[in-house]
From TrEMBL:
Pfam families found in the cross-reference section: Acyl-CoA_dh_1 (PF00441), Acyl-CoA_dh_M (PF02770), Acyl-CoA_dh_N (PF02771)
Gene3D superfamilies: Acyl-CoA dehydrogenase/oxidase, N-terminal domain, Butyryl-CoA Dehydrogenase, subunit A, domain 2, Butyryl-CoA Dehydrogenase, subunit A, domain 3
Domain Acyl-CoA dehydrogenase/oxidase N-terminal: 6-123
Protein name: Butyryl-CoA dehydrogenase
Record's keyword annotation contains Flavoprotein: yes
GO MF annotation, one: flavin adenine dinucleotide binding
Superkingdom of origin: Bacteria
Domain Acyl-CoA oxidase/dehydrogenase middle: 129-226
Flavoprotein among keywords: yes
InterPro entries the record matches: Acyl-CoA_DH_CS, Acyl-CoA_Oxase/DH_mid-dom, Acyl-CoA_Oxase/DH_mid-dom_sf, AcylCo_DH-like_C, AcylCo_DH/oxidase_C, AcylCoA_DH/ox_N, AcylCoA_DH/ox_N_sf, AcylCoA_DH/oxidase_NM_dom_sf
Organism the protein comes from: Nonomuraea wenchangensis
Keyword line: FAD, Flavoprotein, Oxidoreductase
Family classification: Belongs to the acyl-CoA dehydrogenase family.
């Protein structure tokens, strides 16, 4: 299988890079300092078609169109290029498509798709994906949020945490996993319910004061006797667990693409600074100790990029889920851990300047750590990879 990008993908990459450098890069530091979520830029991203890359034309997307970069690989390219200048806006795009649009596109009824997708695909609205809870993260089977059927409605009670794009001024809905019963084997039956923003009893709690991703919208959520129609069930009842596992497989590759953008930024900044900064009358890049570290960044970048776009190519080619699942876990694990290392190296290259907030290196350093945690921790990825090798790991 060839992983060389098509001319359409290369042209698309250039257009996204130009947009990111013109519309995002000049403001990223200010947004970070002010913890500002730039709705106007999100809408411009929608105008560029970035939210519709995996959605078909009938819902306003570009997937499957001739001479288009509208596929999963195109989405990863967009996330990488946005993430190269601002990880917060990169995760906004990743979560909006991977966790907001794709579950409705994949599992929603035609009525649900027609109701929600046009605005989501256009970037006029955003959607969140409510999976994680205070006591249920990697162990999603421990979900305590409940949805009970009563008089043609679902009555939802519970809470979620760390939910991206869940409380912005343009958030239109959150899909939540909830217990809807108990199986014969005694385990929880999990289903997914669409809860529109503004529904009585749906409380968006104050935003987190996060270490990084300051310009990303992230909130805990509370549901107190929230009532929505039974028709808001997303997909088949009792299939919520399988649905979110498949959703996270796609998301892992997209997070890997965000990590690639982070590594690229670290490499670019380090090469530039090492050529400009002088000590003892020569550029610091002439010192082997530093030059070799920057060379390691290039190795990490190339390896992460190949792993990421190989996984994306498997997805676009419709290869067997088992093959894609393994490739997604490998890409996510390697690229995200490399990104964290890359920010440490870049900070070392910048020395004292890397330790002050005026340097973008500091922002990337703070933003990188969560890449090893979100959409499956590094430990979960190693577990999945080991299982894929046939090991009976628990």
């Amino acid at each position: 299988m060839s992983f060389e990008l098509s001319p359409e993908h290369e042209e698309f990459r250039r257009s996204v890079r130009e947009f990111a450098e013109a519309e995002i890069a000049p403001h990223a530091d200010r947004w970070d300092k002010e913890h500002h979520f730039p709705v106007d830029v999100v809408r411009k991203m929608g105008d560029l078609g970035l939210f519709g890359l995996t959605a078909p034309e009938e819902y306003g997307g570009s997937a499957g169109m001739d001479d288009s970069a509208g596929d999963f690989t195109g989405l990863c390219l967009a996330i990488e290029e946005i993430g190269r200048v601002d990880q917060s806006m990169g995760i906004t795009l990743e979560a909006a498509v991977g966790l907001g649009i794709n579950p409705i596109l994949t599992y929603g009824s035609e009525e649900q798709r027609k109701t929600w997708l046009p605005d989501l695909v256009a970037g006029r609205t955003l959607a969140g994906f409510g999976l994680t809870e205070p006591g249920a993260g990697s162990d999603a089977g421990a979900t305590r949020t409940r949805a009970e059927a009563a008089d043609g409605e679902w009555v939802v009670n519970g809470s979620k945490q760390f939910i991206t794009n869940s409380g912005s001024s343009i958030t239109s809905l959150v899909t939540v996993t909830a217990r809807t019963g108990t199986r014969d084997n005694g385990k929880a039956e999990l289903s997914t319910i669409i809860i529109p923003s503004g529904t009585p009893g749906f409380i968006v709690e104050p935003a987190y004061n996060k270490m990084g991703w300051h310009a990303s919208d992230t909130h805990p959520l509370t549901f107190h006797d929230v009532r929505v129609p039974e028709a808001n069930l997303l997909g088949e009842r009792g299939r919520g667990y399988a649905q979110f596992l498949a959703t996270l497989d796609d998301g892992r590759v997209a997070i890997a693409a965000l990590a690639v953008g982070c590594i690229q930024a670290c490499l670019d900044m380090s090469v530039r600074y090492a050529g400009e900064r002088t000590t003892f009358g020569v550029p610091i890049g002439s010192k082997q100790g530093l030059a070799f570290q920057i060379a390691d960044l290039e190795v990490m970048l190339q390896a992460s990029r190949v792993l990421t776009y190989r996984a994306a190519a498997l997805k676009d080619a419709g290869r067997p889920m088992r093959e894609f699942k393994q490739a997604a876990a490998v890409a996510k694990l390697y690229a995200t851990e490399s990104a964290v290392t890359a920010t440490r190296i870049a900070t070392q290259v910048f020395g004292g300047y890397g330790f002050v907030e005026e340097s973008p290196v500091a922002r990337f350093y703070r933003d990188a750590k969560v890449l090893e945690i979100g959409e499956g921790t590094s430990e979960v990825q190693r577990m999945l990879i080991a299982r894929g090798l046939g090991l009976p790991v628990e």
